[in-house]
Amino acid sequence: MAEVVLRRLLATVPVLLLVTAGVFALLHLTPGDPVDAMMAESADASTKESLRRELGLDRPIAVQYAAWMGRLLRGDLGRSIRNGEPVLENVSRRIRPSLQLALLAMAIALTIAFPVAIASAVRHNTGVDRLGTTFALFGICMPNFLLALLLIFVFGVTLRWLPISGYLDPLEEGWSGLRSLILPAVTLGLALAAVITRTLRSSLLEVLAEDYVRTARAKGLSEWVVIRGHVLKNALIPVVTVLGLQLGTLIGGAVITEYVFALPGVGRLVVDAVFARDYPLVQGVILLIALGFIVSNLLVDLLYGYIDPRIRLR
Amino acid sequence: MDTSTRAFVFAEPAPAGSDRRWGALRRAARARLAPFGAAVLLAAIVVALAAPLLSPYDPLAQDLGNVLARPGRVHWLGTDNVGRDVLSRVIWGTRVSLVAGFVSVAIAAAAGGVLGMLAGYAGGRADGVVMRLMDAVLSLPPLVLALALGAVLGAGLTGVLLALGVVYTPAFARLMRGQVLSVKTRDYVEAARALGASGWWIARRHVLPNAATPIVVQASLSVAFAILAEASLSFLGLGIQPPAASWGSMINAGRGYLQQAPWIVFGPGAALFVTVVGLNFVGDAIRDGLDPRLRG
Which of A51-55, A192-196, B116-120 bottoms out in mean pLDDT, i.e. has the lowest? Predict the structure, then answer.
């Protein structure tokens, strides 16, 4: 197992190097002078010059990259131009709402997807199945921002049951904090639920047709025992794959969801940094997101081995 | 290589007879929801092409005496916060969405096709570099990457098209590389090479026709998601800039008036949702028609 982890870690090194090169290049892809793009036209020449020096833009590009990488390896991701704070501090202040949102969304997605997919697969080709597949299609085709506005319209504006924007920390404010996260988490969770439902349903249908399931039924086991004991774990592999692939969608969805519901998370930080043309912050946050994404995918790969011992042995 | 040898060597893999094409079309049409999808796509194309004829008002014309008007006989989908006709803007927005969907996927298919072909054909170090580059692109969440690229390329349709083109390129490159690797080892390719056919000739004659099916399937499934992605970027303010109409930016502009005038959001929202559902059905039908093995 340790060898597998090591091999996978080594394989991520060139990818990480290319990601850093790409993120570094972001600043230099800007049409015109990046400092002009970042600062208002009114900023005086000496301020611009000092920023240019601070970013090292007056040096050759290879030297700039080497210096930037050197700082990265020391854990220095640069400073935001807007508030002058290190990128890591900016992100660590924003990570809590994002993690809470992602966890709640994932919990909602799994709570919806498992019963719907199981009901659809067990009642294959019936009204229940059609309802399940329609739900999955709806969730996949519905843009996040539209669903968010629909939920705000129904539960916030019309029924006035839930707050439509803002954030209170559930760990400090309890129920009112949780209430502030319900609509964003449902927005993000429904899309994820749709994808998991679709995958789990087709995976369940495949496993349900296996001989050992017929044998289990022939032994007189109840349908629930057959599903729980024989079908579910075997049907999980594609779901784990999809969960890994959906992490990107989850992060992307979080960008939109945090923007619509004014949640002060990392996604919102990306949008704000992009619009403020705060390129050092954009670079830092994107690099951290890529790192998080690569590590999560690595964990998903390792999870396969836990779910299916045959993969561990390969 | 003389003509007769060429005909012999290359007759074997010649793929598509009209029978096979009709078979694919018949299978595609049999997909239950394909007619609905095809009707939506056709309607969207007609609306996009005939926007100047179909649009009842100028999509940019403001009527400050008639702001936030409810949907009715004069304005079927109501008016927005500066009195512009929502239906006319939805109609013109169809153009942006379709262009974004088809052009960004075309860019990705072309770039991914070339890179995949290069990687698969050259092998060795070139393969390693190209595929690690694709892995690097895939290691960023698509929307975040598109946002970052949109930020440096500048707001506007061109920036969005290029950004989405980059985001979707790895899928096509991987597909093409896989096809090249599989076709490269076939006997007829060996024979062609032995007879002196150039790499380019083999690529054009054997690899491209064989790779066309999965590329078309991938492209048809990607268009709907590219339309969604363009709408998301426009919603965030990076796509088409106001006052020009795009569904995403209209929805963003309307969200401040959700209580008084929900039609500003739900008009373009419904157009976006129906188009994406329709294109998904078309994509599924094309997949089922061209390659039944890929059926999900």
Answer: A51-55
- Of all residues in chain A, the one with the smallest CA distance to B143 is A252
| Chain B contact present for A240, CB below 8 A | no
Question: What's the rounded Cα separation, in Å, for the pair A266 and A258?
Answer: 8
Place A42 in a pLDDT band, splitting at 50, 70 and 90: low
pLDDT (0 to 100) of residue B7 = 34
- The ipTM estimated for the assembled molecules is 0.85
Give the number of other Cβ atoms within 10 Å of residue A44's Cβ. 8
> B residues 247-266 near A, CB within 8 Å?
248, 251-252, 255, 258-259, 262, 265
Over 90: is that where the pLDDT of A111 sits? yes
Mean of per-residue pLDDT scores for chain B? 85
Closest-CA residue of chain A to B135 = A15
| Residue range B137-168, pLDDT digits in tens | 888 888 888 888 887 787 788 889 999 999 99
Contact (CB, 8 A) for B223 and B196: no
Candidates B140, B233, B144, B234; CA nearest to A269 is B144
pTM above threshold 0.90: no
B281-296 per-position pLDDT tens digit = 898 888 877 765 544 4
Residue among A202, A244, A230, A233 at smallest CA distance from A308: A233
The residues with which A79 forms a beta bridge, in sequence order, are A86
Bridge partners of residue A86, in order along the sequence: A79
Listed by number, the residues of chain A in 20-39 with a beta carbon closer than 8 Å to a beta carbon of chain B are 22, 26-27, 29-31
The arithmetic mean of pLDDT across residues A17-35, rounded, is: 78
What's the confidence (pLDDT) of residue B123?
82
pLDDT at position A115: 95
Residue A27, number of CB atoms within 10 A of its CB: 20
Write the single-letter amino acid at A159. Answer: L
Q: Residue B79's beta-bridge partner residues?
A: B85
Q: Is residue A248 within 8 angstroms of chain B, CB to CB? A: yes
Per-residue confidence at B40, pLDDT binned at 50, 70, 90? very high
Nearest one of A229, A249, A242, A245 to A203, comparing CA atoms: A242
Q: Check: CB of residue A166 under 8 Å from CB of residue A180.
A: yes
The three-state DSSP-derived secondary structure of chain A is CHHHHHHHHHHHHHHHHHHHHHHHHHHHHCCCCHHHHHCCCCCCHHHHHHHHHHCCCCCCHHHHHHHHHHHHHCCCCCECCCCCCEHHHHHHHHHHHHHHHHHHHHHHHHHHHHHHHHHHHHCCCCHHHHHHHHHHHHHHHCCHHHHHHHHHHHHHHHCCCCCCCCCCCHHHHCHHHHHHHHHHHHHHHHHHHHHHHHHHHHHHHHHHCCHHHHHHHHCCCCHHHHHHHHHCHHHHHHHHHHHHHHHHHHHHHHHHHHHHCCCCCHHHHHHHHHHCCCHHHHHHHHHHHHHHHHHHHHHHHHHHHHHCHHHHHC
Res B14: pLDDT: 38
Backbone angles phi, psi at B79, to 5 degrees: -125, 165
Give me the residue from A144, A270, A277 closest to B147, CB to CB: A270
- Residue B58 touches partner A, C-beta closer than 8 Å: no
